[in-house]
Model the fold of this input.
Amino acid sequence: QHMIIAIANQKGGVGKTTTAINLGGNLAQRGRRVLLVDLDPQGNAATCLGIQKQRLEQTVGEVLLGETPIQEAIMPTGRPGFDILPATPDLAGTAVSLAGLMARETRLRQALAVVANQYDFILIDCPPSLDLLTVNGLASANQVVIPLQCEFLALEGLAQLKETIELIRTHLNSTLFIGGVVMTMYDGRANLARQVVEEVRRYFPQRIFNTIIPRNIRLSEAPSHGELIAEYDPQSRGAQAYAALAEELLQREETR
Amino acid sequence: QHMIIAIANQKGGVGKTTTAINLGGNLAQRGRRVLLVDLDPQGNAATCLGIQKQRLEQTVGEVLLGETPIQEAIMPTGRPGFDILPATPDLAGTAVSLAGLMARETRLRQALAVVANQYDFILIDCPPSLDLLTVNGLASANQVVIPLQCEFLALEGLAQLKETIELIRTHLNSTLFIGGVVMTMYDGRANLARQVVEEVRRYFPQRIFNTIIPRNIRLSEAPSHGELIAEYDPQSRGAQAYAALAEELLQREETR
Ligand SMILES: Nc1ncnc2c1ncn2[C@@H]1O[C@H](COP(=O)(O)OP(=O)(O)OP(=O)(O)O)[C@@H](O)[C@H]1O
Ligand SMILES: Nc1ncnc2c1ncn2[C@@H]1O[C@H](COP(=O)(O)OP(=O)(O)OP(=O)(O)O)[C@@H](O)[C@H]1O
Ligand SMILES: [Mg+2]
Ligand SMILES: [Mg+2]
Done:
């Protein structure tokens, strides 16, 4: 049975893409078949994996508009068992034209249904907003994983995110649940980080992953080499944290 | 003569809000009359200034829809000469309804024209996207200031941002120019940061501000106290950097 996970948070720069690629990479290294869907017009996911986007013609945008079958837009990442459905900046325009189409919120879900049985995990990297692209991601997913920076401002958007997830559950996807919150960019020396983690534990009891991702410069260097953290610096604290997160996610799935 | 500055970058978490509030605060401390417009449904700007948003009924959303005159939605920040036009999460819904209205891209410009002569500077904090809200911000502005994190992934969105600014100049606002790029969260110990700054100098010659904002934990603590950095910790490297940035902006204006 496959699991579709949306990685979402409308707050910007919290580690959504970093979590999507490294969690995906880790699950593939453990023999799971993984598809990464990039729903962000910035298209950072492909860049982080070393994929050149200039010549891409069939991407997630064409799939959402029904112009290309999803199988033709999915491409390998060069890592065994790890495919990607990439995005380009044109996706920003697609989001506008999508608004006028029938079934505009469930286009991604319909497309993924065609290939879902070929994968154990489908991870969806969402843009920093609660727009139609993110709605497509949430409408397609079984669960939502929320990366949350250990910063005060990160707390502000949680209520709105929770509300949006409730709306999706009511109108578009009744099986959607919050898989967990991943605390990211944790700097143990800062009081603020500890206070934010405590606050989130109160707000989302039992939902916060035990694995906390530390602030680790190697994580921000890896994308410039087109490598996963496990490839760029496997001994780094960032690599160890994402390996532990993949382990924890798998354990949660087995006990569910 | 007033100056309207959009603070924009679709990459998330790069310091747009932090730059908008602290630049605004600094300009007000120097006796300029400043209005801060929050175009982000996250509404972080008001929170950073210690303003409670729960009971706000008239915000930028109602102004864009033409339901409230802008004068009734503008409120004081408690700092002399520094006002705010706040945002709440409802703004996400406004962006959707705005899409179907006449003059949808220039609603903010029309509203600001009514109060512009009461201010020397109007700063517009944009959301992390190139949606209709950001388009309203760019269509209203005389110049764009682009905060850019010293990270590899931050470079990726520059071409798209430049393209969008060109489109706005062609179709909506021929006077719009790029005022400058502000490098943020600079960590001098990291090679990557130095490489990114060099790359940006090549991409935007003469456009990069000399003032570089360092990564400084005090900047991320100040919002939890509802204070500007100049109030929270005036001796901090963050406070000194934003004071220098305000000075540099004023010098650029005088020589223009
Ligand atoms: N744990 C970490 N330690 C240090 N740097 C990190 C960490 N996680 C991510 N980064 C870096 O921080 C920046 C923001 O991360 P990322 O782009 O993954 O966030 P995002 O939520 O996907 O952003 P956006 O909202 O723009 O999509 C990137 O430059 C990334 O390389
Ligand atoms: N120079 C800095 N040093 C350390 N932390 C910073 C700095 N500038 C901003 N921050 C913190 O980093 C986070 C992101 O900054 P901010 O919210 O201003 O970015 P943004 O671009 O407005 O984000 P969004 O894309 O979500 O609107 C915040 O928690 C802020 O407090
Ligand atoms: Mg991202
Ligand atoms: Mg912001």
Observations:
- Chain B has a mean pLDDT of 96.
- The interface with chain A takes residues 10-14, 17, 41-44, 47-48, 89, 92, 95-96, 99, 127-131, 149, 151-153, 156-157, 159-160, 163, 187, 190, 192, 195, 217, 220-221, 223-224 of chain B (CB under 8 Å).
